[in-house]
Write a structure and sequence with these properties.
Blueprint: H1 7-27, H2 33-58, H3 62-74, H4 78-88, H5 91-114, H6 139-162, H7 168-192, H8 196-218, H9 227-233
Helix pairs in contact: 1-2, 1-8, 2-3, 2-4, 3-5, 4-6, 6-7, 7-8
């Protein structure tokens, strides 16, 4: 087995460390809903790489495949994106979007759970194993939502900070987050073409960039231009 197949183990460990950091952040600012969503996003991110690690170490199983699909295809980036929604938007709008998102995700999870699977043996994790193939048509909408708000939100923030003065660290922090949010999407496209190893690499690199962006912004002495974040940092 290629060494690349063991990368999810490293991603899982890094996700656990990042989760603890975010939990400590949220524990001191529990009104910061956006931090809670980011924390849950990193938890889901790490849980997804746990399923990849299990597959690498112990081989294929139907239950692990379905967990991988739910955590990867549906929860890989959306909770992180929803954190950005709560950062940038008014509370009422963010709460409405969160409610709609949760309903759509619950329906999607149910479909994955009840879907029959194509007979094996399977040496790789890929969505084509699902017999209910229309489920795979749902994921582009979920992933587009995540792309718009995670990557798009970070780009929006970067542009906003670029237009001001003395916001260098917050500008670069958002650039890092945008890159980190984009990389797993590239890997996901490769996984659909049965090149799941590309996903393993981009997941790890993506998380590294997201953490770098978070670290830079968290330690910045510059005042945030987003009211939700500025209130927390005051």
């Amino acid at each position: 087995m290629s060494p690349v197949n063991y990368i999810p183990i490293a991603t899982t460990v890094f996700s656990a460390i990042f989760f603890v950091i975010l939990y400590r952040h949220w524990a001191t600012h529990k009104k910061s809903v956006y931090v809670f969503w980011w924390m849950m996003g990193v938890l889901c991110y790490g849980a997804g790489t746990v399923t990849e690690s299990i597959h690498t170490l112990f081989g294929y199983s139907d239950a692990n495949f379905k967990a991988w699909y739910i955590l990867g295809a549906f929860l890989g980036g959306v909770p992180l994106a929803q954190g950005t929604v709560h950062l940038l938007m008014k509370r009422r709008t963010a709460n409405i979007l969160s409610t709609i998102l949760i309903i759509v995700l619950l329906i999607s999870f149910t479909l994955v759970i009840i879907s029959p699977l194509k007979p094996g043996p399977h040496d790789r994790l890929y969505g084509g194993i699902l017999e209910l193939s229309f489920i795979r048509a749902i994921t582009p909408f979920i992933n587009t939502y995540a792309l718009i708000f995670l990557v798009g939100g970070a780009i929006f923030s970067a542009v906003k900070y670029a237009q001001g003065q003395n916001y260098k660290s917050r500008f670069w922090g958002n650039v890092f987050i945008a890159i980190g949010g984009l990389l797993p999407g590239i890997g996901g496209s490769a996984a659909k073409a049965n090149h799941v190893e590309v996903l393993y690499v981009t997941e790890f690199l993506g998380l590294c960039f997201i953490y770098a962006g978070y670290y830079v912004i968290k330690n910045s002495k510059e005042i945030s231009l987003h009211s939700n974040q500025a209130e927390e940092e005051a």
